[in-house]
Predict the structure.
Amino acid sequence: MSLLEVKDLTTYYKILRGYVRAVEGVTFNVKKREALGLAGESGCGKTTIALSLLRILPSNGMIAEGEIVLDGQSILKLNEDKMRKNVRWKKISLVFQGAMNAMNPVHQVGEQITESIRIHEPHVSKKEAHERAEKLFELVGIEPSRLSNYPFEFSGGMRQRAMIAMAIACNPQLLIADEPGTALDVIVQAQVMKLLSQLKDKLNMSMIMITHDLSLIADTCEKTAIMYAGHIVEFGDTVSVFKENLHPYTNGLISAFPSIEGEQMQIISIPGSPPDLLDPPSGCRFHPRCQYAMEICRKERPPLLDVGKDHFVACHLVKTEEEKR
Amino acid sequence: MREKIIEAASLKKWFPLRTGFFSSLFKREIFVKAVDDISFDIYTGEIFGLAGESGSGKTTTGKLIIRLVDITDGKISFKGKDITALSESKFKPFRKKLQIIFQDPYESLNPRMTINDIISEPLFVHGISDEKEITKRLNAVLEDVKLTPPDEFLFRYPHELSGGQRQRVAVARAIILNPEFVVADEPVSMLDVSIRAEVLNVILELRKKYNVSFLFITHDLALARHLCDRIAIMYLGKIVEMGKADEVVANSMHPYTKALIKAVPVPDPTARRAEVVIKGEIPSPVNPPPGCHFHTRCPSYIGDVCRMKEPPLIEIDKNHYVACHLYGSK
């Protein structure tokens, strides 16, 4: 049963020189209680997807096309008021990237959490909200007495935990974590990731984890989507995406990742660098860097092809091989 | 026996902490012990990795060795010659031999200079002004860092280049004086995964071609293991474990190293999961715990000795050094 269905989502940013085609024709789904890892390099549109889901794009951003269905409800059709009252934080919430700096430095952490509870659930009294905040702090492993601290009194890991507490304050069905591990040290990162998985199971949430670090996805998510230059190039079960990947970009990305286990290997790079999304390459956006590029790759965008076992790939190479069979 | 290019003996760097006027009158000065008595050698042609969490003193160590910060105590030798106390003018010839690549290629390159100016500036600083010589060297280093054809890059500005290309410009600038030793301070941490290897391979090739030695500073143990010959793990200004990269990762002995390695996730969904062995975060280096700095978080705490006495770095196995009381009584 899918909690979230995203179909052909297309998001543009308007700038002086034209439109930045940050996300184009992206289709994926997240099932209930499932964690989806959204991976890709910087500038590939991961965060834009998160902002589109919550409809909190900056003023120059717009969702040009597509459909987002959450729990049977198409949220692109909702008006702003309903969106704020019923969806944001209550159904979908977001742990922002760089959570370390996402808090207001001149307010106590507790105040900020109770504020977010009371804005979304106005009938809750201050006292109740505070009690809930205490429970939330216990849940994420911080001493409840520290609600009266200011953000600067917290360490990086604790701030990240407090942000997570704030994100789950209204029992969302879907938690989006944008780069939850970046800027944290390995040990603290492992603590935060463990906390996120535990919370997901305990609170029956679904999760979208946005990261550039494939090893974090391998560690915590059941599903993986690999993005490149605004397109999803491969999507499916984490084990198949890591072990039986079919897209040349996925393959390159995974071989570029050194592992702490196993044989020592040579770290391989993908030649070239990601394209400018103001004027992206035609056809398959990966073709200028792809060693298998064919004539058709320059002309046509490959569709996301079902290769069985819940595994989808957008590559002409796979398509032609499939047709041969 | 291979030659030692760098010998660092009992290096210390204590930064005085600014306190209020009155407390500075009545209390003794407070220091941040960023690097606190560490010793190691780097051999010619070696890539020596320095790993640890943020705030453990990695970068300060790197800067100390090439004398970018003043040393509090200790001794640094370059090819057997003591360079600790040389005056600026006497040290200048050594600057050519000791270079550094900084972490962030978006900040370490002057946005108003062309690539040509950036890379050739070290030559002017060191009084090489023959134009033919400059062009020759420029073309050679651009070739080395694979920014070819040179003409396509020389007259561009940093903002026109991608992150990986910028970092290769930074490498080119560091190697144009033909250094023998380069400190690489997290050279790939700001780069995307798919282009990291470009920069790493340039480093490997430089070593092969010119026998340049590197101090490679990183927080990424998986990367350190694939790139470095030996690594040292730092915790709060101390080296807690040092040895061959493979040894330290596969047969780590210090409880901190073990915990660190267990916390690293593996990019393979069928492999083991990252584990959290220790709680909390690295304490402040202003007032580090007494005795073994790690005892407050240590899962193998063995009693008072950890709290009272600082464990020395001793050779437990061949070329494998550990600073831990667990192995002290052996």
About this structure: The interface with chain B takes residues 41-42, 155-157, 185-191, 193-194, 212-216, 218-219, 238-239, 242-243, 252-254, 256-261, 264-270, 273-274 of chain A (CB under 8 Å). Residues 2-91+172-324 of chain A form a domain with the Rossmann fold fold (CATH 3.40.50.300). The radius of gyration of chain A is 21 Å. The longest strand of chain A covers residues 2-15.
